[in-house]
Amino acid sequence: MRKPSQIGHATACHCEITWTRKRLERWMAETHSLAEQLPDIGNLPHAQMRTLMLALARGMNGLPRMATGREPMNAPRIRIHTLGRFAIEIDGWPLDFSGRLPRKPLDLLTAIVARGGRNVAASTLCADLWPDADGATAAQSFNVTLHRLRKVLGARDALCVHGGSVSLDPATFWVDALVFEQAIAQMDGHTEMQPGQYDGSVERFDAALDLYQGAFLPMQEAPWATLLRERLRSKFVRAVHAYAERCDRLGQHDLSIAVYRRAIEIDPLAEELYRRLMGVYDRLGLTADGVALYRRCRLILGRLLGVMPAIETREVYDAIQRKVQASTQGRAETAAERFAYGEGAAAAALGGPGPSAAGRILGSVSGL
Questions:
Q1: In a domain, 338, yes or no
Q2: What is the pLDDT of residues 1-20, one digit of tens each?
Q3: Number of domains forming the structure of the chain
Q4: Which one of 11, 72, 308, 309 is separated from 153 by 20 to 30 angstroms, measured CA to CA?
Q5: Which segments of the chain does DSSP mark as H helices, in order?
Q6: Which pLDDT value is given to residue 325?
Q7: What are phi and psi of 234, to 5 degrees?
Q8: How far apart are CA 363 and CA 302, in angstroms?
């Protein structure tokens, strides 16, 4: 049995160790937070200072890196953003091409992504990037470009070539387009909720919308990019529609409208989203909002694509317009009848305008 003095000494040591560990954790958390803010500060006067702060944040001299809560400690080193923009981050730092842009290596990287990122046949990539070259020349160009891409990314083993196929190591690469498709797949089958039930689909839907920040590689016009762009846009529109329909079934019409409006802000060229939201406005009797939304759709499609809305969109708009005209006609007739049989008769007795004037008013209003 230990003496009281020994127990007190052990307790004091334990408190000292706990206090020291907490100070170390707080210092590392503050250092990591400062290092994350460095890219937003601008050009630092000394590049060595930036390197030093990054080294401190990573935990040099055997100190472990502290998790920030936003990403797991074993998060992929390379993050590739392709939805709405193209950017590469390595260890949290944006890849900066201060010299000549390595266009062909980056085209190879995005082509691998567009083909799924896993087990992409080298022959398919050669056909995508060097369609006019013969087999031997295309293969040689592929090998050289792959070598350059590995140097650009600093990740030789992360681009795996096996059996004539190329894969991105999932432990090294994080690609927004591929993660978005996974999120959409997880959403499927979780839209038939009843009031009072909860299955986490709200978080899954928000996560998917956070990932989809626009069309896939909007500036890339190659066929392999166009195919994935349309596939992802179709999945995005379908997910938005499924979730908004669920909100309508639960009577959450305001949330349904908010979902469509947010989706349109993300992808203003997705015409089907306009059409779906116009239908919601029509069902809720918000005809003025439906008309304004159609005009916005026509303006954006005309300015950015040089086209008019599709016939399906115009049909929804025409149906809304007919209701607007019928409502205007009904209000005009009601006002004229009230004037003719009520206020008009009293006015005539006082020497004012009579029913004939009411008829002229009706004619002028109905002609609007």
A1: no
A2: 444 444 444 444 444 454 45
A3: 2
A4: 72
A5: 4-41, 47-58, 103-114, 122-129, 135-153, 176-187, 201-211, 223-249, 253-266, 271-283, 287-304, 311-338, 344-349, 355-366
A6: 84
A7: -65, -40
A8: 36
Bridge partners for 94 per DSSP = 89
Q: For residue 205, give Cα distances in angstroms to 8, 60, 195, 208.
A: 55, 39, 18, 5
Mark 12-45 as b/e (b = at least 16 C-beta within 10 Å).
Answer: eeeeeeeeeeeeeeeebeebbeebbebeeeeeee
Q: Residue 224 has what DSSP assignment?
A: H
Shortest CA distance to 108 belongs to which of 118, 94, 122? Answer: 122
In a domain, 102, yes or no: yes
Tens digits of per-residue pLDDT, 305-317? 999 999 999 999 9
Say if residue 31 is in the same domain as residue 119: no
For residue 87, the SS3 value is strand
Residue 284 forms part of a structural domain = no
Give the mean pLDDT of the chain: 75
Look up residue 276 and give its amino acid.
Answer: R
Say which CATH number the domain at 115 has: 1.10.10.10
Summarised one tens digit per residue, pLDDT across range 125-155 is 999 999 999 889 999 999 999 999 999 998 8
CB atoms within 10 A of CB 1: 4
Model confidence at 120: pLDDT above 90: yes
Query: DSSP label at 161?
Result: E
pLDDT band at residue 48 under the 50/70/90 scheme: very low
Nearest 5°: the CA angle 167, 172, 178 is 60
Cα(89)–Cα(304) distance, rounded to whole angstroms? 30
Res. 56: pLDDT tops 90: no
CA dihedral 112, 117, 120, 126 (to 10 degrees): 0
Q: What is the pTM of this model?
A: 0.65
CA distances from 312 to 40, 265, 278, 279, 307 (A): 46, 21, 11, 11, 14
Instruction: Note whether 95 and 28 are same-domain residues.
Output: no
Task: Label residue 284 exposed, middle or buried (CB < 10 Å: 0-12, 13-18, 19+).
Answer: middle
Give the separation between CA 225 and CA 242, rounded to whole angstroms: 26
Domain containing residue 156: 78-174
